[in-house]
């Protein structure tokens, strides 16, 4: 096979240690950026650009080469920079891709799809991270060879082992094994832990971490009064047993599962039944479903044994994990759509469950990890042998439609829709028949035209045909939601095995037009013992894959989840690249502690609640966030955990807390989703957009509709993640737009008004009302200085609000406005938005 310059090429005898050295050369590029480049940029360059613009082109056109970072930045004979990191207007390649300049259009024959161009825009804006500096200079050495024996020596590909507790000098500080491992690291670094958090701060931290809501004043009062040694354990267990727990921790997994209720990309098609997967996740965390079982069900629930019809339906719904990802429904090539779908499933599965970027091996052997194209296409065969059912009907811009999975009528499931009468059902049947007839009549008219008339009328007729067809399909979609007696059907997104499994050929450069050797369905070699059978001979192989991933013998699965739980509770992961445990990921700061957590997680039947409890009961978790100049000088990032890191609340938590303290949060679980009632097609998207803008939902944010590219403003302004990507760790920004939102947005003002009304109705003196406000918002009473400041505000604000008017109405208005402004200031404060 011809060796191409775009490959990362090193001498054949290179060991894995040398590969790590290459990886370290690109340490300035984050794992997420590398993943984005390898998945979205390099394959496009290889497929569409390198033929004319690489060092191996027979004739380099325009003097422009694009197979190294330096050449790409330099540009070609025009003198313009090919890529200027962070600057679109000075990046001639982006201008060429968009076809805005008639004299410079790339590729010259066919403009790239809108989502591909959008990826290049995003890449340039993020600084054009590019790991290809070594590509040419090392080209003489030959193709990089992957040595699996060496590859298995990477720390994360070795099974976790039990470690003896380290010796520590400080006696009496450690309460648990977790504390001992952390204390050993602190002592080695010459650091001393700060004092424990005060009890009011601690219960606020526990409540938010476990439920996503603040503690009530009564809960704080009871905790402060409980001086027993089991007080913390009791309050932790109280919140773990709350239904609010599943809503909070289920949202963490939904980030990882790239949960969304539409396809995103260039044609945003609604997924009205995605909400069933959301509810499955919430219920799984509330019931403390063993994590290994949780993973198995999401990969192969339809193939697993079940106890009853309801259990069977739940397991099928779990496979929605594989169906809810973003898709390019406008792709006219169904083979390409199928391979892109499989690629998205491999990417989501590998990052979410294994912390690996296996999808980077689609076009070539993985650039950094010991993962081959053979591994990728062995997995691809598993997913190609499974039918993904996402439930969208055919329309003008949806070239790839699908049915849904109908769950057993006796499964006793929740429905998003109310029943209709049998008469209404018959009306739907007639509407569908009429719309279908209209479409066929137009087709007949076109068939009967002369060639000249057809040429004149084809455009308008085509649109009319499509409109009628779309209408017929839309009504059919509504019809399919109900039985003939008008009761709603139980429908779900998910996957089922195809009748006949297939194996996938390796696609050269990931191109469906260049199939090579066919590989049998199978598992990832580096994660299997040497000599262990990899191939799968029966069925799709999803069940085998599920057991392989969720096995105690898999070195990654328990570690990846234990690291994520630690990260959510402590502010940063032991491995700070939670979705990448490969060569380009960061090494663990506390490897022995990570092994300890992973092993205890598995030994306790994969109980997520028990893992959380073990961390929360440690002294490390219960430390204060006090600043220490001496410690900060040594460890400014707090990677050794000498204090509890301050953490900003997530978008959903800020919104829910504002509604909660104002007394307006509806804690009743939502049945279904507004998306399920919006309709399908473009009409459904428009309906959903209007509803998102106009309807003030008051239920928990985890139940808000997540339409890709139309995320509610409250969520997006506070760093809600891209719903198309696996996200374990959200961005955490502190920007002016957030403060402006809290000051001016109608939802923020409405929440403040509700809070003010609740305070105004609280019995007692003005000082008692204000104290109650502090207890609701911060879980504590105001200090003397804060009370003085509030009184000064109270004496000035009313007069300014009424502008000298002394009528009773004016004074009443001023009083309400003062309380509302005061409440809004509490919402906007750092203390409300952060955990100490």
What is the topological layout?
Elements: H1 16-25, H2 31-48, H3 69-74, H4 92-98, H5 114-125, H6 148-151, H7 177-188, H8 199-211, H9 217-225, H10 231-240, H11 243-256, H12 275-286, H13 291-300, H14 309-318, H15 334-354, H16 373-384, E1 386-389, E2 405-406, H17 422-448, H18 451-479, E3 491-492, E4 494-497, E5 504-507, E6 515-519, H19 542-549, H20 557-570, H21 591-603, H22 608-616, H23 629-634, E7 647-648, H24 651-661, H25 681-694, H26 713-716, H27 736-744, H28 746-761, H29 766-778, H30 784-802, H31 808-828, H32 830-833, E8 834-835
N-to-C CA distance: 58 Å
Q: Helix segment count?
A: 32
Radius of gyration: 29 Å
Strand content: under 5%
Helical percentage: 40-55%
- Arrangement of strands in the largest sheet: 1-4
- Count of extended strands: 8
The class by helix and strand makeup works out as mainly alpha
User: What characteristic shape results from the CA principal axes?
Assistant: globular
Number of domains: 5
């Amino acid at each position: 096979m011809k060796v191409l310059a775009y490959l990362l090429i090193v001498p054949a005898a290179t060991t894995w240690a040398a590969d790590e050295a290459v990886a370290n050369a690109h340490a300035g590029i984050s794992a997420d950026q590398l993943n984005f480049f390898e998945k979205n940029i390099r394959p496009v360059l290889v497929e569409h650009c390198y033929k004319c613009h690489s060092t191996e082109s027979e004739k380099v056109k325009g003097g422009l080469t694009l197979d190294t970072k330096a050449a790409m930045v330099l540009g070609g004979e025009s003198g313009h920079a090919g890529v200027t990191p962070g600057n679109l207007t000075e990046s001639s390649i982006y201008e060429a891709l968009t076809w805005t300049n008639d004299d410079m259009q790339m590729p010259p024959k066919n403009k790239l799809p809108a989502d591909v161009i959008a990826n290049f825009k995003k890449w340039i804006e993020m600084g054009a991270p590019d790991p290809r500096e070594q590509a040419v200079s090392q080209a003489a050495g030959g193709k990089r060879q992957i040595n699996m024996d060496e590859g298995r020596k990477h720390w994360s590909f070795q099974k976790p082992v039990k470690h003896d507790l380290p010796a520590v000098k400080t006696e009496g500080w450690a309460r648990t094994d977790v504390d001992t491992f952390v204390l050993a690291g602190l002592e080695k670094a010459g650091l001393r832990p700060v004092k424990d958090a005060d009890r009011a701060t601690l219960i606020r931290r526990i409540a938010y971490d476990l439920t996503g809501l603040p503690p009530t004043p009564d809960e704080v009062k009871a905790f402060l009064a409980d001086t027993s040694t089991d007080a913390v354990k009791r309050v932790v267990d109280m919140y773990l047993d709350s239904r609010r727990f599943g809503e909070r921790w289920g949202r963490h997994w939904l980030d990882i599962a790239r949960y969304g209720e539409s396809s995103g990309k260039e044609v945003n098609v609604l997924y009205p039944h995605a909400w069933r997967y959301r509810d499955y996740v919430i219920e799984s965390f509330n019931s403390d479903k063993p994590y290994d079982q949780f993973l198995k069900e999401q990969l192969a629930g339809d193939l697993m044994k079940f106890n009853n019809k309801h259990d069977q339906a739940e397991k099928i719904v779990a496979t929605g994990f594989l169906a809810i990802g973003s898709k390019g429904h406008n792709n006219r090539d169904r083979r390409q759509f199928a391979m892109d779908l499989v690629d998205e499933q491999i990417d989501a599965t590998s990052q979410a469950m294994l912390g690996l970027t296996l999808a980077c091996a689609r076009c070539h052997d993985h650039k950094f990890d010991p993962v081959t194209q053979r591994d990728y296409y062995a997995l691809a065969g598993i997913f190609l042998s499974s039918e993904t059912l996402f439930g969208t009907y055919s329309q003008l811009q949806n070239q790839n439609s699908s049915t849904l999975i109908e769950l057993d009528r006796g499964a006793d499931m929740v429905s998003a829709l109310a029943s209709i009468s049998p008469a209404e059902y018959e009306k739907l049947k007639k509407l569908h028949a009429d719309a279908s007839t209209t479409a066929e009549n137009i087709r007949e008219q076109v068939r009967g035209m002369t060639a000249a008339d057809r040429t004149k009328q084809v455009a308008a007729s085509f649109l009319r045909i499509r409109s009628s067809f779309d209408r017929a399909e839309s009504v059919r979609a509504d019809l399919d939601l109900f039985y003939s007696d008008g009761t709603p059907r139980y429908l779900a997104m998910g996957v089922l095995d195809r009748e006949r499994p297939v194996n996938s050929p390796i696609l050269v450069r990931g191109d469906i037009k260049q199939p090579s050797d066919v590989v049998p369905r199978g598992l990832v070699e580096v994660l299997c013992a040497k000599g262990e059978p990899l191939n799968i001979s029966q069925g799709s192989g999803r069940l085998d894959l599920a057991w392989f991933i969720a096995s105690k013998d898999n070195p990654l699965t328990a570690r990846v989840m234990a690291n994520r739980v630690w990260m959510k509770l402590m502010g940063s992961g032991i491995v700070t690249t939670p979705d990448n445990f490969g060569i380009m990921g960061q090494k663990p700061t506390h490897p022995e502690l990570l092994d300890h957590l992973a092993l205890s997680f598995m030994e306790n039947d994969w109980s997520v609640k028990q893992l959380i409890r073990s961390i929360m009961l440690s002294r490390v978790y219960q430390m204060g966030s006090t600043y220490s100049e001496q410690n900060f000088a040594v460890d400014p990032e707090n990677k050794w955990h000498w204090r509890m890191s301050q953490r900003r609340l997530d978008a959903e938590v800020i919104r829910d807390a504002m509604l909660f303290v104002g007394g307006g949060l509806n804690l009743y679980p939502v049945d279904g989703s507004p998306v399920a009632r919006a309709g399908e097609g473009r009409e459904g998207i428009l309906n959903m957009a209007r509803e998102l803008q106009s309807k003030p939902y008051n239920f928990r944010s985890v139940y808000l509709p997540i339409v890709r590219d139309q995320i509610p403003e409250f969520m997006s302004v506070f760093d809600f993640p891209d719903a198309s990507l696996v996200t374990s760790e959200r961005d955490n920004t502190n920007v002016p737009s957030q403060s402006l939102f809290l000051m001016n947005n109608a939802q923020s003002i409405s929440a403040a008004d509700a809070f003010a009304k609740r305070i105004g109705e609280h019995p007692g003196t003005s000082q008692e009302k204000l104290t109650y406000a502090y207890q609701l918002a911060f879980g504590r009473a105001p200090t003397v200085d804060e009370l003085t400041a509030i009184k000064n505000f109270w004496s000035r604000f009313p007069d300014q609000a009424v502008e000298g008017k002394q009528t009773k109405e004016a004074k009443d208005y001023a009083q309400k406005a003062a309380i509302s402004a005061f409440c809004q200031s509490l919402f906007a404060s750092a203390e409300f938005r952060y955990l100490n």
